[in-house]
Amino acid sequence: MASKFLSDGSAPTPVQRGKARAVLNRLIRRYPYAQTALDYANPWELLVSTVLSAQTTDENVNRVTPGLFRRWPTAEDLAAASLEEVEEVVFSTGFYRQKARSIVELSRDLTERYGGVVPAELEELITLRGVGRKTASVVLAEAFGVPAIAVDTHVRRVTGRIGLTVQTDPEKIETDLKALYPTKAWDGVSMRFIQFGRDVCDARAPRCGECEMLFDGLCDWPDRP
Question: Is 152 known to be catalytic?
Answer without folding.
Answer: yes
